[in-house]
C-alpha cells in the first residue's frame, strides 16, 4: 500500500486481493510503481509475515557492559518481578505488566485527563473524574468511553464521551527521605587492591536496607483525607514483543539509544555513568557518556522506578534505588516455581526468592567489573555536580558506590535482555504462515483478508511485528510524507498516528517535548535540521524537511503490536475500549473525533463499511495472533509469585485508613508458575473477564428465551443429545468455559462434568451431544462474538455451528450446521451465572 490514497479510497492491496493475485504477483505489480506526487513517500504493500526467525534487536556494543548474558537475563527477570523495587516494597515492574505483558486489574484503574492541554503549548490538566472517581470498579457497561447511538456512524448522537483514562495504579504520593542499612552479623568490608574491589564494598556489610518515606497529601487521588494509589495518565501497553519497538512508551520518549541513566538517550547532555579505567598500573574512575543502540527497552526500563506515579516516592534517584536493592535478597518475599524456566536453579530452599545473597552478587556475575569495582565513592552535590571521595564505612545520603550509582545501567540492560526473551512467535497465524493450512479457522482466514484488505489494518499494523513502529521499519524509513485526512500532505514519524480516539488537545502524545525542550517527534527535529536528528536520536534521517513544511505530530501515538491483543485489553492509549469488537467498530466508523482532528488525522481513518460478518471475522483473525504460551503463562512467559494492589477496600466514597493516611489495599495474588504454565482450569482472566476468560459458568440462551441443555431423560448419562429448553436454574443448563489450545474453549456441563461435543463426521445435520473428556478437537469450540450480544458456537473440528432445529421428539434439537450469523437459531447469548 502507498500513502498516496485519498480518504475513502481502497488501498492497492485491497484491489490486488480482489483480483485474486498471490504474493509474488502482488510484488510484481507493485514493482511497476504508481504515478504519485514526487514528494510523497511510496511504501510497499503490507503482506502477512510470520515472526519466526525475525532477529531480535540487540545492542551492537553489548559486550562492553555485559560479562555473562545468561546471568544478566536471570538478573533482569528477578528485578522485573521483584516487589522490593518500588518505594513501598510492594510494587514491581510486573505489577502493571503481569497479564500478557499488560494490566488486567479493574479497580482503582481510572485516571482523569491529566495530559489535557489548553493549546499546543499550555497545559490544562483535568483533575476531575467524569466516570466513577477514585477507587472505582470498572464494569463492562462503562465501555467504550465514547458512546454513540449508532456504533457504525460517528456522526450519530453522542450518548456519552469522557476524557478519563483506564490505566494502572502505582504508588501513594510520598516524599523520599533516604535509605537506611542494617548491618550483617559480623559485617566486614573486603580490602581493596590497587583501586578496585572484588565486589561492591557494602555487599558484605549490609544485611538489609529500608527506604524511608513521608506521605504527602494527594490533591487528586484521595477519598476524603485518605490517600489512594495514584493512577497513570495513559493505558499500559504490553511488554511482550516490545523488544521490536524502535522507541517505547506511547509518545516514543524511551529512545532507541540508551544513555545508561534514563529514557532520554542522547537528548540528555548530562547523562553519565562511571567507569573504572586502568591506565598503566593505576585505576581511576571517570564519568563516561555511553551510547547503547537497539536499546529502547533499556531506556523504557529506566523510567518507572523514578516515577512518583508508578513506583517511586518523589525525589528518589536511581542511585538511591541501587543503594536499597543491591543489599536485598532477590524476590525474598515471593514464591518461585521449582520449574521456573530461568530461576529454578537459583531458587531458595524455602521456596521464597532466590538463593543469591543479594542483588550485588547477581550484578557482579552479569556485568563487567570496570562498571562496578571502584574503591571510591561518588559524591552528588546539591547543584547536581559530582565528584569522587574516599570510601568510608558510613557514607552520607549523597554518597554512592560505583555499583549503586550505575544501577540504572544494570537495571536497564538486564531488563532489556530478559524482555528480549518474551517473544511470542508461535501463534496460529505463525503456524499458518509456516504452511499449516489448518492453523487458522475459516472465519479467521476471512478476517485475515479483511485485515490486509478492506479493513486497512496493515497500513499501521504492518510486518511480522504487527506495528510500523518496529526497529526494522523505523531504521529503514523513520519518516514519511503522507496524504493526511484533510487531503493535504505532511511529514510524520513512521509508526505514530493520530486516529481520532480523543480530541488532539486531550493528549499531544508524540507532539510533546522532552524535559530538555526538544520535540519528541523525529519529524519535528528534522524540521529544525537533519543534524539535530542525528545528534538527538542517533540515526540518519531519510528525508529533508524544510522549516516551512507541514508536519503531523500532534495527538499521534505509537502503534502497538496486535500480537496477543485478545489478552491485553483495555485498548488504545486511553484504555477507552474493553473488547476487540469495540475496537473494530471504532475503526469501521472512521474514529471518534474524525472531523475535529482532521488536520493531523491518518487518512486510513475513514468509513470502512464492514458487515457484521466481516467485523466478526476480523476479531477472529486478531485472536489468531495469540500465542498459547502467553495465554497459559508457559515458558518463556512463566514467572514468580506476585501480589498486586487491586484498588482499596471500600468504594469511591469510603475507604479504610491503614493508620498512616493511606487506604488499605485489596490484594490480588498471581501464583508462581513454572515452564509448563498454568493448568487450563486455573488460567487468569483477561480484563473484566472479556472474551469469555476466567473459566466463567454460563447459560447459553437463544433469542427466543430457550437455553441449551441435555435431553431431560438422559441427565444421568455422560452422553446425551442436546436441545433447547425453557431456561431454569438447573445445573444441567450451566456450562463452565475452559480455555483450550489456539483460542478454542471446552464447554463443561455442570451437572455431571461432561463436555459438549460435535460429531466426528464433518456433515451438517448431525446431533450435538455431550460426552466424557476425550481430548479431541470435536470437544473444542470457538465462541465467535458477533458484537451484538450474541455468539456463534463453532466446532473446531467440523467448522460447523450449533443450531437448534425443530424435532418431533425433542422440540428444538441441537445439530451442527453451516455457520451463519443471519440464522437466529444459531445465536446464543453467553450469560454468566
Helices, strands, pairings?
Layout: H1 12-18, H2 23-32, H3 69-81, E1 110-111, E2 146-148, E3 158-161, E4 165-166, E5 174-183, E6 206-215, E7 222-223, E8 226-227, E9 273-279, E10 282-288, H4 296-301, H5 318-325, H6 359-366, E11 376-380, E12 386-390, E13 399-400, H7 402-405, H8 407-419, H9 428-433, H10 442-451, H11 471-476, E14 479-483, E15 489-493, E16 496-497, H12 522-528, H13 530-537, E17 557-558, H14 580-588, H15 612-623, H16 628-631, E18 642-648, E19 665-670, E20 697-701, E21 706-710, E22 720-726, E23 735-739, E24 745-749, E25 755-757, E26 769-771, E27 781-785, E28 791-795, E29 801-807, E30 811-817, E31 829-832
Antiparallel strand pairs: 1-4, 2-3, 5-6, 7-8, 9-10, 11-12, 11-13, 14-15, 16-17, 18-19, 20-23, 20-31, 21-22, 22-26, 23-24, 25-26, 27-28, 29-30
Helix pairs in contact: 3-6, 3-8, 10-15, 12-13, 14-15
